[in-house]
Amino acid sequence: MGMEREISMMVRKLRRDDVDACEAIVRALPDWFGIEDGIAEAREYLETQEGFVVEDENRLLGFLTCDSEFPESIEITWMAVAPDAHRRGVGRMLVETLVRTARVRGCDLMLVKTLAEAHPSPEYATTREFYRAMGFRRLTVLPELWDPANPCLLMVRPLA
What is d(CA 95, CA 117) in angstroms, rounded to the nearest whole number? Predict the structure, then answer.
């Protein structure tokens, strides 16, 4: 094994010409996003919502989309990081960028929906750990939002 090269990553706003590369990241994560309806939803959000991407030398490593139903809150609607970029700070960069953006806009609360603990997925256990490390706390389980086999956990992070 050789030495890993240092990665110089940067965050920028999501552009419509990023959609195919972002969808490719989603498709590279079948343990998280293996349902075709979900992949289609991700693409729709990428095409219609604002967000951010992390890139390294013109390769996208991850993305986040967001939406704001109310001025005081903002929601992470989709986030995915390329498998070979996991645990390298990509997700943290995306969330921290959104936190700064949300604070400038006057948002007090950030939310994210993920798979609840009742589901045995080890991948989503890791996802929940990531969000906890980023300051999110569990608010409630919405067992019927997606479907009973995929109970939704709503997590929130105060921004004040």
Answer: 22
Query: Phi/psi at 49 (nearest 5 deg)?
Result: -105, 165
Taking each helix axis from N to C end, the angle separating 36-48 and 19-27, rounded to the nearest 10 degrees, works out to: 150
pLDDT in tens, 118-150: 877 888 889 999 999 999 999 999 988 888 888
Rounded Cα distance, 89 and 81, in Å: 10
pTM of the model: 0.89
Max distance between CA atoms of the chain, in angstroms, equals 50
The CA distance from 36 to 3, in Å, is 37
**Domains of the chain: residue spans and CATH:** 10-158 (3.40.630.30)
Q: What pLDDT, in 10s, does the model give residues 70-84?
A: 999 999 999 999 999
Q: How many helices (H) and strands (E) does the chain have?
A: 5, 7
User: pLDDT at residue 32 above 80?
Assistant: no
Which residues, at least 6 apart from 26, have a Cβ–Cβ distance to it below 8 Å?
Answer: 33, 39, 42, 78, 80
